[in-house]
Backbone:
């Protein structure tokens, strides 16, 4: 089971992330949102696009690999971290795609934005 999480961003606004059943971050939003409602709309768009479009593999300038789910030329979701090996990034894409059907239920569980944890 996956779930979306909305957090306040440093300097204002909000960021979202997609968490796996074991609370590992699988994806993050493509950009910072001004409001929680904007984050929720972006998460809904990711849920729709992920069912019909596969994320693209990105080879970064530093030699690492990442992925991006694009919609209309705009990144709406990205890998949560860079991967040192291409195969690991491809596996992460497969996990993301395999869980796309669960995104709608994850949206229903999206909690209200909460303040950052102490020491974070």
Residues:
């Amino acid at each position: 089971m996956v779930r979306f999480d909305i957090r306040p961003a440093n300097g204002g606004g909000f960021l979202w992330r997609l968490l796996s059943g074991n609370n590992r971050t699988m994806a993050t939003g493509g950009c910072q949102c001004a409001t929680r409602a904007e984050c929720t709309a972006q998460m809904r768009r990711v849920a729709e696009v992920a069912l019909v479009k596969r994320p693209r593999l990105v080879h970064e300038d530093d030699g690492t690999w990442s992925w991006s789910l694009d919609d209309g030329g705009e990144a709406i979701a990205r890998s949560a971290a860079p991967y040192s090996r291409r195969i690991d990034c491809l596996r992460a894409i497969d996990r993301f795609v395999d869980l796309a059907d669960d995104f709608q239920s994850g949206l229903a569980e999206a909690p209200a934005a909460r303040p950052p944890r102490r020491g974070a």
Observations:
- The chain is about 30% helix and 30% strand.
- The two ends are 26 Å apart (CA to CA).
